Amino acid sequence: PVGENPPVRRVSDWDAARLRDLATEHGTPLYVQDLDRVRENCERLLAAFPDADVRYAVKAHTGRAVLEAVRDAGLDAECASAGEVDRALAAGFDGSRLHYTAVNPPARDLDYVAEVAEANPDLTVTAGAVDTLDRLAERGYDGRVCVRVNPGVGAGHHEKVTTGGAAKFGVPHDRAAAVAREAAERFDVVGIHAHAGSGIDPDQLDSHRELVARMGELARDLIDPSDRDADPIDLEYVDVGGGFGVPYEEAAPPLDLSAVAEATREAVAPLPAGVDLAVEPGRYVVADAGVLLTRVNTVKPTPDETVVGVDAGMTDLLRPAMYDAYHPIRNLGGGRDRDGGEGGDGTAAPAPAEREATPVTVAGPICETGDALCRNRALADPVRGDLLAVGVAGAYGYEMASQYNSRPRPAEVALDDGTATTARRRETLGDLTVVEREAATDRDGPA
Ligand code: LLP
């Protein structure tokens, strides 16, 4: 039971003192993921889509504690790879709640999933190409299949994540019925699937509606074919993908989830009795449940701008560099006055609320110009030692982290009912070379 369940949690809503304590205890950069907020987001989705199958797109945040929270909340798991299937199984999702969406699946992934399916015959594989179906059959797989369709219409916060309409994903809409009917001769075809893209804005609702309507029409034709020679397919569900956007700008209004749910139900109708609607949000579940904490180590005034150097960069949070994505940043303070000298023995700087807002670029430690968390943004005048909270970082944050520039990946703390536990330890310099040292041992024998 969720008491007050606001549709969005802003970076300003986090308890600053708590975040400062966590940064002191665990060091920075540090991801903090609040499981209570993850649960609230699940509750809101289930309330908005009471009759639908709600599947969590695991790729948005794969942490064990998050997966367990989502499992307990009652969502299924939508997995994009063997690795995600493996994580979902380890987190206790049983086969009937596993959906593997295969996009040009590597042989190793198909081998793994075909093997998992022997013990978990209730799992479903979503395939978006006839070759994928053939490759499943070659592995003796004859279980549950969902056919992914390219709906010919897409949406998303950036062209790089607008999947609907991109030829890479799904079988072309006008071929979908034929592919599904052919697949039904070899597999148990239980669903059809399409995904518009990620980060769908409220003003892109028309594209979403169009996609859903096309899927509804296709479902009706498969269940009750207009071509009298075609065998009907007993579909269980129509999966219209994920992509529900969350506000990143502090002032942006939250997505009206009930309006999206309403539009979806209307556009897909009428679905025959027994056929469910399915949705698979990732971002919506975890985005505003996470912040990235980073420490200011350098403040450099230049004639053009003031550059605030921090210890988190594009290796920790790739989204700004990759998509020019906006993340809200809040100065939590704690630093020393600029004229306080080296070593942090200066006087404590005033609380951020008492400082003047200054336009700054917040830049990370990576040797690329694109490595900035924001540009020309007004922040409460940062000083060395301040802690910054980068908001709405719970989705595609840690997941897209890399070791580029030989930077160990950050640590992550999970908050559960207020209690903090290390969910992922900080990587060490030793972690950076472990695979090459192991390769050397394989090659040359133990040192
Ligand atoms: N279903 C499928 C088949 C997907 O490909 C995706 C996301 C989702 C569901 C979940 O979409 P969501 O509800 O999270 O928007 N790295 C990018 C996002 C890539 C999303 C890829 N697919 C970013 O940071 O914005």
UniProtKB/TrEMBL annotation:
Residues 330-357 are annotated as: Disordered. This is Diaminopimelate decarboxylase. Residues 36-287 form the Orn/DAP/Arg decarboxylase 2 N-terminal domain. It comes from Halorubrum hochstenium ATCC 700873. Substrate binds at residues 283, 319, 323, 368, 396. Its EC number is 4.1.1.20. Keywords: Amino-acid biosynthesis, Decarboxylase, Lyase, Lysine biosynthesis, Pyridoxal phosphate. The modification N6-(pyridoxal phosphate)lysine is found at residue 59. Homodimer. The active site is at 367 (proton donor).
